[in-house]
What we know:
single chain, alpha+beta, 1013 residues, Immunoglobulin-like, Tachylectin-2, Chain A, six-stranded mixed beta sheet, 20 helices, 19% helix
Amino acid sequence: MANTHRTCTLADLRVRDPFILPDPDTQTYTLCVALRSSGDHTRPGVGVYTSVDLETWEGPTTVFEIPVDFWAQEGIWAPELHRYRDKYYLFLTFNTGKPLPKSAARPEGDLPSDWAPLVQRGVQVLVAESPLGPFRPFHNRAHLPADRMTLDGTLWVEDDVPYMVYCHEWVQTKDGTVDLVRLEDDLSGVEGEPVTLFKGSDAPWVRPGRDRYVTDGPFLYRTRTGVLLMLWSTFGWRGYMTLIAASESGSIHGPWVQQLRPLFMEDGGHGMIFHRFDGTPMVVLHHPNRSPKERALLLELEDEGDTLAIVRKLPTGHPFADPDLPLEARVEDLLSLMTLDEKIACLGTEPNVPRLGVWGTGHVEGLHGLAMGGPPGNWGRPLPVPTTQFPQAIGLGETWDPDLVRQAAAIEGYETRYLVQSKRFRRGGLVVRAPNADLGRDIRWGRTEECYGEDAYLNGTLVTAFVKGLQGDHPKYWQTASLLKHFLANSNEDERTRSSSNFDQRLFREYYSVPFRMGIMDGGARAYMAAYNAYNGVPCTVHPMLKEITVDEWGQDGIICTDGGAFRLLMTDHKYYPDLEMASVAVIRSGINQFLDRYREAVGGAVDRGWLTEADMDAVLRGVFRVMIKLGVLDPPDRVPYSSIGTEPELPWESEKHRALARLITQESVVLLKNAGNLLPLDKDRLKTIAVVGPRADQVLLDWYSGDPPYTVTALAGIRDKAGDTVRVTYAPNNEDGAAVKLAQEADVAIVCVGNHPTGDAGWAQCPTPSDGKEAVDRRAIVLEQEELIVQVYRANPNTVVVLISSFPFAIPWTQRHIPAIVHLTHNSQELGNALADVLFGDVNPGGRLVQTWPHSIEQLPPRLDYDLCNGRTYMYFRGEPLYPFGFGLSYTTFLYSNLCLSTSRLQPDDTLTVSVDVTNTGERAGDEVVQLYVRHLHSTVERPNKELKGFQRTTLQPGETQTVVFPLKAAALAYWDADLGGWHVEADQVRVMVGASSADIKLMAELEVGGE
């Protein structure tokens, strides 16, 4: 056994499955590692390094080499060194390389092409009198038959009985297990048959629906309160990770329950625990899980009694940790201390540098409430933590209330911080992938529900409000970081991974990029996601606009990330690069600094080839660390105003404040589309029976990006509660056997609740109903399949109210012609039923307004992939009469507009005028009016829209009250993008200024002369 000793640190050693044994007698730590047959080691074996301080290590000393006549010759895995009854034992996994006999090859069916080979391997125990060996095997065979494919054995002694806990390989079973077998007293063999403690698929963090469930590296530990825990590893949503299971009985025999909080998620596993000589518990992990970068990661643990947690100590002693230094100086210092490998590791969504005490923060979803729930999107993975859920984004848009949207986002940001910082949860991340700044230019777009509508200015205003709510109003720190999605022109789902959105510079500047520009420049967002699609033939993930426009022009100096899988799609779908190494160069040099999918091999390969340099990494990582510093994750808690969130005893989603806002914003989102004969509001004192029918009556449906609300109130429940004991409320979900018609005939009024299913009630990329859509699926129709139910109920009872609960506009011309009262609202709100009932019974006067043009039929829509608005898209260019116009919505009261006044009749290019108008509530109920300001260029030298929204204000007026609504209007808002000049141009023109209740209901107008530049 040749030994060439050296002095090194853990960072110098390539180690898989590290194991450290402390010896209190000698005050020495021993690290055992598998030795490959190369260099000084002529045969595979096991070596040990020793240390007295866990920092400097000496070795290796070879303590075992595989004999030439040994049963397994191919290598050794997962060496563990245990002291038991004054002797030392190595638990080793051996690999023979020999195929399993067919009788033992157990996976059924066709195996994937990347399935690992089915070969003999097994765990064997060796013994020595010293940790420095030499170790000798008891037998020339594994402790268990090698065709059982056992690995990663560890020792546990309970009631003076030794046991081996090990893994039964997933390669053989598809669903790996953690098993237990009793050992003989001297550990020379096993007694009895093994038993299974749990399966890989039992773990909440493994990926559902996979064809394999990995179990790896079990290690047992009893906490300070006597709870028996087991560390083990698998591959979950974020790759290699370390989980914790707990024995309910306190015994090795279990039963074992998987804890919902993983110990380590950032590509590290096969952990073991030991105590430093000062008593501090430590965990050592194999991190990362890809050679040749594998190292032993040593971290301090907190023993919480019933579980374990990594102690994430704040960095000290370096300038980057000084909160009083300028941000840029801190970033540069941190980069100067990092290795190239650490920089590559920080290009993921968990930018951690444990060696320096730097712990980043991951991403979460949050379009209308933090998504930490279970199905349908399963963003909670796996723990469905309740969080406050608001209406879908399209519903938030229909409030036309930026301040209310800001409040909702602030609540979401608070709950996000709470889950990250609360010791009870420690879940999620502080980068929130919201809002969606894409524009709903086509109502067939499957993700229409995620945007705020078709108008760029309205979207930009609400995007800005949402960003400000998430990030908070502190001048130095953010509550959370808002990450806008998906730059740019990402509004088709079918073919989205290979299609190109094609349009000119004017549409880029004047329409598609507006919400992103406003979110960044006005809202202060410093993170966004590049879209899957191409723009004018160049994939957005590598488009020059990322740097040239968002960074250089708009000042976006933070995170730019790929969408999930977009990196690989550059090669597979766009066919833009022949391999991922070449693609990685383009992605990073385009400004991307966070990958949402596997990237390390490709980036590492590009570095090895000299295609990428450390300077390239530094250039993009500056943005990542700027965001981390703004979030305060590198600063002492007493300096960060949001650090106390998570310490309060009340769960925020259970607070009355959060519930009340969910109800209020849902009330404000309700749009009254028709109310002939004033059928609404309902007067319960004049009603004896109400029939509530339809498939959406007793459901609160959640969309793909929803969280898990703490409770839900359906339309039926809300109506029953509001109607009280004096009104009989009946219910039928459909007209099977004439049930709905019968109830309608017997009722004073019938309420029909219909609408789409926001996930299509189907799996990924599936929507059986043609008019349903969602991510990855565009709508194939816009008719309402349930309209026949409406017809049947109406014929039975003309006093019919249709409640359309939908993510999209529908073509419902028959319903509009015949049904006396129609109400629209969106899915997902936990308070849906209460808010709806508040409106139906008149406690709340509806004031929501539509944010998209609703056509009579699909024939009024241009081709789905036509991104040129001028061909009949949106209210700005729509041809013909819509079913409902953009901005439309009725009220239980009436309003009078008067006294339109412009502060000047001539506007110069650098000036701002004010537009004022008096609005009077002429009805008998208090109500909200959304006053809308539009302009039309009368003699422009370039093509302009029919009208453009330039301002809006939602205001509440009491009966008889008059308010003066004032809008600022800058000349710059009237400019167009001059592609020849490469800039904005205010031209001399006559502009019609219009105010009204919708884009089609203009009440007053005035003419304005604009002076040219």
